[in-house]
Amino acid sequence: MSSAAEITDMITSERMAAVDVNAEALGVPRKQLMESSGNAVAQAIRDIAEPGARIAVVAGRGNNGGDAFVAARFLDAYDLSVHLLGRAETITTDIARENWGALERGEYDIEEVRDSTQLSLPDADVVIDAMLGTGVTGALREPAASAAEAINASDATVVSVDVPSGIDADTGEAAGVAVEADHVVTFHDDKPGLEGVDADVTVADIGIPDAAELFVERGDLLALSRDPQSHKGDHGTVLVIGGGPYSGAPALSAQAAFRAGADLVYVATPESVADAVAGYSENLIVEALPGDRLAPVHVDTLLALAEDADAVLVGPGLGDAEGSLDAVAGFLESYAGQAVVDADPLRIVPEVETDADLVCTPHQGELTAMGGPREDDWRDRADAVESFATEVGATLLVKGAYDVVSDGERTRVNRTGNPGMTVGGTGDVLAGITAALVTALDDPVQAAGIAAYANGRAGDFAVEEHGYGLVATDLPPRVAEALWGDRDE
Ligand SMILES: NC(=O)C1=CN([C@@H]2O[C@H](COP(=O)(O)OP(=O)(O)OC[C@H]3O[C@@H](n4cnc5c(N)ncnc54)[C@H](O)[C@@H]3O)[C@@H](O)[C@H]2O)[C@H](O)CC1
Ligand SMILES: [K+]
């Protein structure tokens, strides 16, 4: 679990970037957020400086600077000048460039600073530090470094936009020189890195709807951007323990795990169906277990196989023979890694003592069989599932028209999918995606949320072509597109 997840009322820059994109997906574009950010900065200035005071804006070429270009338009009552560190054509985003353009056309007192040693601030009453915010990487480079020195050397009151330039928003560290702010106006939520900053911090609401944090949307997919240097095995080895009465379910889960980015997928399945499972795809590596049902005698073999996996998926097609459920209980009692539990074994989870990091993927009927709540309204279900997740001590992904994901602390809701997905096998696909993503992310709630989102989107793509005649095998080929494609609906 990432450390920031434990700081419930703050937000890391990675999550902020995701929430930003989710807001856009919900119809609140970034430029609107920038307008609100700038307005909040201007409000802070009005609270500390009298009209007519001399305000100097020192702006960078990213959206942090963009916020201050917006603020300038709300500060016409002041003697304001804007100093851009660099050439206007190198401003890095459209929304910042458009706001700079408004200052140019509005004949504001603006300049492009070529050499920051020429930056003159001596007579400013207030300096707005809008050089860098959450986009900073490493120690401040020129011209920002000299500009930070000049700001710190001035007698002006310093108001930093979002984060004092040079400070890392997540850690609070400054790799080099950083602006010493008197005030900080940060946006949407407090930032972990501001804890240790000796300034008064205002957290400004910039109109990001709560839904941008609650619902899983395309911003959450940013978490899956991969380290290009990764090599085989970095992106997850998954062991699927399934089959026995059935052979299709474990194969569906295994295929889905591949499409969600797993590098290697092993399937441990009774020998009675091992050939059938292997026959579905050359990609599958099938380990045959003696007999025709999973049994307690297999537990040691499963634990040995699990040693080589980053996550285990237990359940698809296992059936509910008592011996099979006992085998799952025996496996979980000794296994301490990441496990996704689906289908029949779900009902035994509440009685099993395990050190494994569990993600359970029940539909409503299986949730009830686990002793879980039944609520028809999705909001009530989200609250009830959050409480039950604490009781079970696992991350729950409760499938429904609105999927609910919760570990008892953080709760997400997924709205993708359609009624065509009630067809058998889509749960096996979702379980396989979930197993692959828990190996790719160190955050089971995020992994399960994205899995539900991708499974539903794959189903939405499939229903375009097959209507409600879609079948589960239509989903895996569309999962990769749902996660990494650029279809925009
Ligand atoms: N939802 C929100 O939180 C919103 C935040 N807004 C503001 O956007 C900035 C983040 O903007 P971004 O463009 O991503 O990055 P920055 O402007 O912070 O900086 C990028 C800029 O800086 C250069 N750079 C990076 N590291 C260094 C360095 N060590 N030295 C010098 N220069 C550096 C980089 O090359 C870029 O040019 C956030 O803080 C908020 O202020 C949005 O306005 C609205 C929504
Ligand atoms: K700043």
Automatic annotation (TrEMBL):
Record domain YjeF C-terminal: where: 215-486
Residues spanning the membrane: none
Residues binding AMP, per UniProt: G427
Coiled coil region boundaries: none
Keywords: ATP-binding, Isomerase, Lyase, Metal-binding, Multifunctional enzyme, NAD, NADP, Nucleotide-binding, Potassium
Cofactor(s) this protein requires: Mg(2+); K(+)
InterPro entries: CARKD, Nnr, Ribokinase-like, YjeF_N_dom, YjeF_N_dom_sf
GO molecular function: ADP-dependent NAD(P)H-hydrate dehydratase activity; ATP binding; metal ion binding; NAD(P)HX epimerase activity
Origin: domain of life: Archaea
Residues the record lists as binding K(+): N64, D129, S165
The enzyme's E.C. designation: 4.2.1.136, 5.1.99.6
Pfam family, one: YjeF_N
Function noted in UniProt: Bifunctional enzyme that catalyzes the epimerization of the S- and R-forms of NAD(P)HX and the dehydration of the S-form of NAD(P)HX at the expense of ADP, which is converted to AMP. This allows the repair of both epimers of NAD(P)HX, a damaged form of NAD(P)H that is a result of enzymatic or heat-dependent hydration. Catalyzes the epimerization of the S- and R-forms of NAD(P)HX, a damaged form of NAD(P)H that is a result of enzymatic or heat-dependent hydration. This is a prerequisite for the S-specific NAD(P)H-hydrate dehydratase to allow the repair of both epimers of NAD(P)HX.
Subunit details: Homotetramer.
Protein name: Bifunctional NAD(P)H-hydrate repair enzyme
Source organism of this protein record: Natranaeroarchaeum sulfidigenes
